[in-house]
Specification:
- Two copies of one chain form a homodimer.
- Chain A is of the alpha/beta class and about 300 residues long.
- Chain A has three domains: about 80 residues, Winged helix-like DNA-binding domain superfamily/Winged helix DNA-binding domain (Arc Repressor Mutant, subunit A), CATH 1.10.10.10; about 100 residues, D-Maltodextrin-Binding Protein, domain 2 (3-Layer(aba) Sandwich); about 110 residues, D-Maltodextrin-Binding Protein, domain 2 (3-Layer(aba) Sandwich), CATH 3.40.190.
- Helices cover about 45% and strands about 25% of the residues of chain A.
- Chain A contains eleven helices and eleven strands.
- In chain A, the strands form two sheets. In chain A, strands 3, 4, 5, 6, 7, 8, 9, 10 and 11 form a nine-stranded mixed β-sheet that branches. In chain A, strands 1-2 form a two-stranded antiparallel ribbon.
- In chain A, helix 1 crosses helix 2, helix 1 packs across helix 3 and helix 1 packs across helix 4.
- The radius of gyration of chain A is 32 Å and the shape is rod-shaped.
- Chains A and B meet through helix 4 and strand 3 of A and helix 4 and strand 3 of B.
- The first copy, chain A, binds a DNA duplex (30 and 30 nucleotides) through helix 3.
Chain lengths: ~300, ~300
Amino acid sequence: MNINITLRQLKVFREVARQQSFTRASKALFLTQPAVSMQIKQLEGVIGMPLFEKQGKQINLTDAGEEIKVLSETILQQIEETTQNLELLASGQQGKLRLAVATTVASVATRLMARFNERHPALSLHFIVTNREGLIDLLETNQTDIVIMGKPPEDLQLETQEFMPNPLVVIAPPGHTLCNRQKAVSLNSLFQHNFILREPSSGTRRAIERFLAAEGRSLESSMEMNSNDAIKQSVAEGLGLGIVSIHTVTSELEQGSLKLIDVTGFPLRRSWYLVQRKGRRLSPLSERFKAYIIEEVQNFHNSLQV
Amino acid sequence: MNINITLRQLKVFREVARQQSFTRASKALFLTQPAVSMQIKQLEGVIGMPLFEKQGKQINLTDAGEEIKVLSETILQQIEETTQNLELLASGQQGKLRLAVATTVASVATRLMARFNERHPALSLHFIVTNREGLIDLLETNQTDIVIMGKPPEDLQLETQEFMPNPLVVIAPPGHTLCNRQKAVSLNSLFQHNFILREPSSGTRRAIERFLAAEGRSLESSMEMNSNDAIKQSVAEGLGLGIVSIHTVTSELEQGSLKLIDVTGFPLRRSWYLVQRKGRRLSPLSERFKAYIIEEVQNFHNSLQV
DNA sequence: TATATTCATAAGTAAAACCTTATGATTTTC
DNA sequence: GAAAATCATAAGGTTTTACTTATGAATATA
């Protein structure tokens, strides 16, 4: 008669088995009674055995019917459960979030993620902190969904979105001669001093070099470090001046362990970008995360303007 | 696009997920590649989310895809398991066997069932021993599949099969005056003595009364008991003579604790019948049990004739 | 015994499911 | 850069599905 069991058959069967009646099942399913009879008959055809036996008005399950009853109940429930899980996925309340960020934004990103996680406890998180080079590699090999970085490379197929200012400032230890000047310090006088900078492949370093090139200058850096924390400490110790994203030194500025120097042309106006591969459809969760970040930054700016 | 998941979709999806390739899946399923694409696309339409994402040649599961993979694997396996169970049912190796027997055949039936159970260990057994009245009630209320009893009632819609002789014999305590006579004892001399019989609703009792009625006699029983064991003991104690199925006294005759009396017209030739309700389809297991019983009885007779 | 209830069956029909061939777009691989 | 591989899409056709209405048969109910 037929070749395969269908879910329709199981659904109708389950209702009949529950209701112990074809007619009642047909009403529950908003069908006519013959429609139910047919589904059951087809199922019996597939199985090769009767599933019900009539005793007068009463219908009873055969052994095979009992077997199919278990099957129908479990299968249909599993489908219902999966459907619910899928709805959670679709609404972004559950899922995998793969995020990679530049070293400089790590702390900001961590804070954002923690707050996002409170709203979406079911998410499974994959978080990578690395420098610009590493981020590009992750994007190319598709190991991450969203990246937060400085100016993204032009040669890759990317979708980018500028979402947050990233001012680069010059920092000095408290009491440095260039601090607290009335006027902005010139680049000339600035470069009398030693500098501690990030490695050449870092975004911060590249931003500085591009700015200097535009001014007709170049940089002979005295020290290189691959960690913002190390730079901050070194500057605080008096090893030299630093140029860093202001986001990395907010707490030190408040505590007074570091000071800003007002230099002509500074702060360098850079931005953070949300980046993803072009054409890559983000999971609903990732989409929500993006929306969340943008919203948060917006709120932050608004609060500053008040 | 669609309304419902189909098992076809899940089957195709599972293959694609396993093979990590549409083309390989299509070969494994003996389909063209577009056929696979379509099934997946329909499934995605039902789900409302993409299940795979392409990264160059490679295809990867999305979060939703992972969810559906679990679903497809579990559901399809459950169906396969159920199919196997159904095959066991169909071959009669598994199932419920509901059997009811007359008190008199209980020991014979027990032996048969035990041996049948050795061959079919997966069966679940429902065994009732009761008298004729009880058996008829069980049949009417459909609480049993097969009944073993004496002559079945005519007024019920039954399918019956005579399968085993059931001779009724007269028993006496050893040393009774009617024992070891040269000639068969006449009914006249027999009825000088007291009798111990089963209750009037029992098959054995009815058989005796019908025989006597044909001979123009009737019975004034001195004692009634509803258990064959009680009757045997009472006869052995000398309380009176008994008329019982020979099957109930085989061991006592061997031991010599009871003796047969050769009476004109005895043994009464009755039979045991296999009985089921007309039109009621037996489960494969019950069918096998019927076949088994008939075969065993056949073997038993053959061995007697050798 | 008439009536109501329950399931089975038949005929008819609109929709869908399922697959094929042909072809296109991308991406790897050589 | 050409060839090969992979998935997507379109068009077309046959089969199956899933109902419906109408009606019949068996059984319970009053």
